[in-house]
Amino acid sequence: MDAVLLTDEAFSQKLGQDRDNLAYLLKWLEESQRPGAPVLLITRDSMKVEDYASLSSRYSSLRVITIDKIRAPMDVYQFELDIAVKHKSPPIHTNSNSKALHKNQDEQQVDKEPTTKRRSFFDRFRSKPDGAAESLEATDRLSRELANISRGISRIVAITGHRGSGVTSTIVNLAYEASKRGLSTIIIDMDTEYRSMNMYFDRFHERTNKEEQMSASLIRTLARPQDYMTTAFNIKDNLWLTSLGYSFHDHRLLEQFYNSEKLIGLISVLRSRFNLVLLDMPLDLFRSFKETMIHIDVFGLCVPNNLHAVLSTVRNVEVVLDQEKATYLNAKSKVIVTQYNDRSRFQDQLFTADKVSEVLTSGLSDYLRYEMRTAGSVPYNSGFDSQIETDVPLTNTGAEFERAFGQMLLRLMEGA
Fold it and tell me: How far is CA 336 from CA 5, 275, 300, 412, in A?
């Protein structure tokens, strides 16, 4: 072997045991295999530099490289392996922003190395761009604000609301907006009754018609969360989807894997792989997934700005949840005013987005007693749900919608 590459998944998180195992590996390499073979540890945990400082001083072949992203870019692995095999020793870098430094160093090597380079082993795993519509760049100042959120942050966000309140449309647009702004994102469509993600993503729907395994994507991902790269559908480079195809009808598998325990396991795995995990969870689903609520960081509660929608939301909460779980939802929710109508009125005043939050917690129900902040509102558009016909999300159709969903994303990523 030319080198050994270790990632966080190699460790048990029991420091003493991990240190002993790493010491054994280093000693084994030194004494019986390949003396001096570089051992690289690429980790998200900056404390590992200190944890293994004694081993680094004893074995010059060990280097600990820390990154600040949920998932290390392939370029980081490739660069570090290239350096290791060439027996160079640049200083430890503490974040993935050193990519620019890597580029400069690579450019300095151009005149020294042949121009033809063997294709990297990692090249086969690189995603290909899918289309101009999906590769649009964010254009407004929110890009700078979102950039201030560490790329190492991870949020589990459940978008919920009574059926017909725009839950799925909101999720699709938030996912596209997060992806445009560089956040690795996955959608988990838990609405197995309607499965409307098939209407929003034509390529996913076509794939489910051709492949039985992809039609069962959600069940397979719940069963084996660690294999999401093969069980989920890659919409574009940093955007994934797991849902059920219309052709899936195996009730036995649904009974076995579609439950709180499996969803909690999936969430715990994806939290370390993505910046944003979006769950499509209409309110009535929490009858079966109450135990999942504690593992969700923030709820985006979709409510159009009319009194009927407000009362329907309150009634759904009272019917689906007991008071304890409703209080948890109340404390962790930010209101998303969907299909915002700037002419809607309440008590002879404009029914603004902030007013929706106020009315929800004004005493209509003992289950919703705490003030809820507003995550944002979506300007009314007759094509809000016609995205299913064009396959182009609303956020990609104009600056007004990009700002709306960008601001909403920022507030949801901030947490409750």
Answer: 44, 20, 6, 10
Within 288-382, strands assigned E span: 298-302, 333-340, 345-346, 349-350, 374-379
As for how many domains the chain has, the answer is: 2
Q: Closest Cα to residue 79, out of 10, 3, 151? A: 3
pLDDT of residue 95: 43
- DSSP string covering 128-170, please? PP--TGGGPPP-STHHHHHHTS-TT--EEEEEE-STTSSHHHH
pLDDT tens-digit readout, 261-305: 999 999 999 998 999 999 999 999 999 999 999 999 999 999 999
pLDDT at site 386: 62
59 and 111 fall within a common domain: yes
Rama region for 369: left / alpha / beta (φ>0; ψ in -120 to 50; rest): alpha
Q: Are residues 115 and 151 in the same domain?
A: no
What is the domain extent for residue 306?
A: 136-413
Residue 197: per-residue pLDDT? 94
- Given 125, 144, 159, the domain boundary residue is 125
117-146 CB burial, b ≥16 within 10 A, e <16: eeeeeeeeeeeeeeeeebebebeeebeeeb
Does 394 fall in a domain?
yes
Sheet containing 4-7: which strands, arranged edge to edge?
4-7, 39-43, 62-66
Residues 203, 29: Cα–Cα separation, whole Å: 48
Residues 36 and 158 in one domain: no
